[in-house]
Amino acid sequence: MTAIGGMALCAVLVLPAGASAATSSDGLWYFDRGRVQEAIDAGFDGSGVTIAVVDTQVNPDAPGLRGADLQVAEDSYCYDSSAQPYSAVSTDYTAASHGTNVVSMILGTGEAVGGTPIKGVAPGATVRYYNSMITTGVGEGTDIESTCLQKNGDLIDAGPDSMDRYPSGLAKAISDAVDDGADIISVSLGGLIDSSNAVAKAHAAGVIVLGSLPNVGGVGDWPSSYNGAVAVQAFGADGQIQKSSYNPALSEPSPNLSDDVKISGPGLGIIAQGTPESWDAQQLRSGTSLATPVVAGFLAVVKQKYPEATGNQLLQSLIHNTGTKGEHDPEWNNATGYGAASLTGMLSVDPTKYPDENPFFDPDNEDTVPSQRAVDKERTLLDASTPAPSAEPDDGAAPGEASALTPFLIGGGVILAVLIIGGIVLAVVLTRASQRQKTEQGGDHGRQE
């Protein structure tokens, strides 16, 4: 993808009203291939694990999400021209279709209205949802127009030097997700939207950060290309990665190769909920935006089975247990990264056997973003914000005597601290000169199947 400017989008394949059930159900191949139902039947559905999803607005009332444990932060991190925050919830298809289908890959309940059940890969997980970009419409051709304004009406500055002055909505969302106790953060957005300090904070807290690759080859955008982040590629039911089919510079489609790819997940020809005509209709969609939450959901299921595993150990298991060849030494290529994420492979191996080290993080290169120094700084800030337990009883008990109130007082202090701290690819490019930009939304509107 280019660093500045929008990307042309391919049309999605919309299932007509008379489409056969077999055609529709083909879009569930990711669920069957991953043997997700076997994991659910064994009691592993992501329960007890919190995934943060950062995306566009969302429609929690769409079929497949009703009744799911979807906790939406009420306000967007973006403001309208009257300095009012957008609602994170919307029933408008253009505004909410991307985010709705991204989160459905995790939480889909299996409900369907006259169509194929949308099934999430970790339906028992809790998803904390944060809206950091507002999709406002379709511009010339198939470009998507999006915006994110500060309260004063200015665009949130996308440059890395402005991070402390004008942190992006993406950065705020990632930071708040860490404060809110996320185990995994899934971002199907990308572009020149700086969130390096927030990703450093996530690394310091041991929180996994996944980002979708662009749907055309080349250097990954932020946050997928950040040091230590998991850049996710998409593949289809035939095992082939997606083609860069909507890059106008290419005379023929070519594989979506990237030096930044870390792992690949199911993302092509996926059944998705909603069309511009109705949320009850369905279509097939493709893109890394859909693959990223699938991998996040797999990790959540493994985290449930092995709760003592750190985020780093889960990532070690991710690359040691790809595909169908069982546990193996990791091998990388620029098509699938370390291979296809395997839920069954990871569930069969206790990840606590692996070193507690992020296999994607380079601690020695100070030119990487975020650097080890940035992570250390964020760790210091996190440590400083955690209240130390009181050494003295505060209810009049004599030294050395246990106080019946002590557990409640300590617990209340921790809760107060948290409240004080807390506050299918959409490639977004923010500029200082314009309040509206062209963006790519490939996970929503991927290549035609």
Can you describe what's shown?
By secondary structure, the protein is an alpha/beta fold. The chain has one domain: Rossmann fold. Helices cover 26% and strands 16% of the residues. The protein has eleven helices and 17 strands. The strands form four sheets. It has a seven-stranded parallel β-sheet, sandwiched between helices. Helix 6 crosses helix 10.
Q: Can you summarize this structure?
A:
The chain has helices at residues 21-25, 29-33, 36-41, 93-107, 169-179, 196-205, 288-305, 311-320, 343-347, 372-385, 406-421; strands at residues 13-14, 50-55, 70-72, 75-79, 85-87, 126-131, 134-138, 144-147, 184-187, 189-191, 208-212, 230-235, 263-266, 270-273, 282-285, 426-428, 437-441. By secondary structure, the chain is an alpha/beta fold. It has a single domain, classed as 3-Layer(aba) Sandwich (Rossmann fold), CATH 3.40.50.200.
Question: What descriptive keywords fit this protein?
Answer:
disordered N terminus; Rossmann fold; alpha/beta; 449 residues; 7-stranded parallel sheet; globular; disordered C terminus; 5-stranded mixed sheet; single chain; 11 helices; 16% strand
Largest sheet: spatial strand order: 3-6-2-9-11-12-13
Strand content: 15-25%
Alpha carbon gyration radius = 21 Å
Q: So, CATH architecture?
A: 3-Layer(aba) Sandwich
| Count of distinct structural domains | 1
Low-confidence stretches: 1-20, 139-143, 157-165, 392-449
Helix amount, in percent? Answer: 25-40%
Number of helices: 11
Level-1 CATH class name: Alpha Beta
What is the CATH topology? Rossmann fold
Tell me the structural class: alpha/beta
